[in-house]
Design brief:
Layout (H helix, E strand, L loop, with lengths): L13 H13 L1 H6 L11 H10 L5 E5 L2 E5 L3 H9 L4 E2 L1 H10 L7 H4 L16 H13 L3 H17 L2 H8 L1 E3 L2 E2 L2 E2 H17 L3 H5 L7 H7 L1 H4 L8 H19 L10 H12 L4 H16 L2 H13 L2 H11 L10 H7 L1 H14 L3 E6 L3 E3 L2 E3 L4 E5 H5 L2 H4 L10 H4 L22 H18 E5 L28 E6 L7
Amino acid sequence: MGKKTRSPGDRSTWVSSTERYLATMAAVELYSSAIISSSGAEEPPLLDTIKRFGKTREPFAIMVAGTKYYIITSPFDASEFYANVSTLSWDGFLNETLAGFGVDATRLDVLWEKPSAPSIVNPAGKCLIHLTQDLYKQHLLPGPTFSTLIEKYKVAVSQLMTWERLSSCYGLATASKTQKISLYDFCSTIMIDATQMTLFDPVLFMIDPNMTQKMRQFTDELWKLMYPSPFLYTKGVAAIREQYTKAFLIYQRLPKEMRKGEAWVVSALIDQYKELGINENDSAAMLVMVYWTGDANAYKLAFWIMSYILFDKELYASIRTETLPAVQNDDLDLQYLANNCPRLRSVYHEALRLRKRDLAFRKVEHDTEIGGKLLRRGNFAIVPVCQLHDNEDVFGSDALDFRPERFLEQQDLTSSLSYKPYGGGKTYCPGRFFAMQEIFGFVALQIHRFDVQLASPVQKFPIPDESLLTLGVSRPVPASDVWVTLVNRRGKVQG
């Protein structure tokens, strides 16, 4: 059941994607050299180097703008890369990330200082950075606070996906059918709003009603703030960052009784910021980071999952049948979706494998041997996640194709060394459980409350935008969106 789908933009070019990312950091002129025209233009030297060494899967080094990067392509070497926390460090990139979100670079050291005494929230007396990582794990890994978070999300997404609300927002073509809707807009609007409602008190919408509307642009352009260059236009994304920072300056100053609806992790973080005397502009910037982390990738992955489902009628029918028990009596059973829907889970992992196209970075703190090669101190090591995910030795000769049953037939693929959508080691993403359940719930509600139909039967499958540096899941090329209509299913026999 199900058919293979290859996006028009898919091709055996993980190397060119890697080059694009590296080239962006080197500035626009090198980035431009990575765009290979279909006219048969000569390949840039960097691309030729990556292709030549990539075939051997041995680590190799390239110089970009005077900086040396070690490119790690073997799944076994990548596993060692993720596991090594003694000589390969992620902390330096955290500083760059925090600065990108607006934390003052002259005050970054404060975030790494251990408190003078332990506290209830911080009994081990860790620095704020490492405490924040612990709080994320405590809140986002299965447990009491995670269950509370999931319940909040269930309420939020259910409220946002009513026929009355959506028909009002998008307009009606008939009494039971909407006008055509951008699927990407639909996924992003619902999921970004639902995440804000889950993490923060509704008062945040009152402080700035337009925050969620700018999240897509902020996500698309955030890399410009992470890798600043005089060649990049950053005015637009910097203005959004300032807008968000102003909102969180107000939000964090509110007394707790006015923020009762926020998630526990947000309350704990704000308490720690105040207890440690963190500059309020810096703490507001860190709340922007929390806000973005919750929203950044789920809506894009939901778009790809729904696109694959909509372009395969058999898959649509099978997913609807499989998820039916989770939506009985207008309820949404996220635990059932997580534990009893293997086909939906397979589709999730396959879409994530194909569309997660970012890079994993580490700084080489001490000379380190990986894959028989010596990585010298002071340089950087990189694992191109897209290369791991396109590995034909692991995923087969059809690795570039979407095959919905791939992870159903080979369930051990989720633990493969070549499948790293959530990172690994100390940086293994604690939000992976929440991300999966929020997307499952969104998909299930969408296909059971509505008949989701392609607005035109001759639409082409969307093209992933691999020309844009992504910090996670790729967006679609703007001109290749999917247009759909929603038909109200209330009153119909469900299933």
